[in-house]
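Quick one:
INPUT:
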């Protein structure tokens, strides 16, 4: 990059930071101060009295399904660029099918392993 591009990048960075700081200062100076009291600080519970158990408990199966979902979703996201670049690699005679086939077989075997171990069964 030429040196003049760095100057414009620095100017843009300084203007961005300056705008953020300016907005924060204006809201601090001219903003309305909140009046605190006990009623305003209590959470609204739709007419039901406050309960002591604020964090509901979930079954561990929800977490295992969530982890499996994220893993297979990441695999899907990794496959999307392959679809886009597959034609380019074929034109340049670069073998790309075997690594993707290995990746798909690894994902398939991991899904079958999760099924066999009962990670997706809700009732045991």
């Amino acid at each position: 990059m030429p040196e003049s591009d760095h100057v414009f990048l620095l100017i843009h960075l300084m203007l961005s930071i300056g705008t953020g700081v300016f907005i924060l200062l204006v809201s601090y100076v001219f903003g309305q101060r909140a009046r605190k009291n006990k009623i305003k600080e209590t959470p609204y519970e739709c007419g039901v009295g406050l309960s002591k158990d604020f964090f509901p408990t979930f079954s561990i199966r929800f977490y295992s399904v969530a982890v499996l979902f994220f893993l297979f979703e990441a695999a899907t996201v990794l496959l999307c660029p392959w679809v886009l670049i597959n034609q380019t690699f074929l034109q340049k005679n670069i073998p790309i099918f075997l690594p993707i086939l290995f990746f798909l077989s690894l994902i398939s075997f991991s899904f079958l392993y999760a099924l066999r171990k009962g990670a997706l069964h809700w009732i045991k």
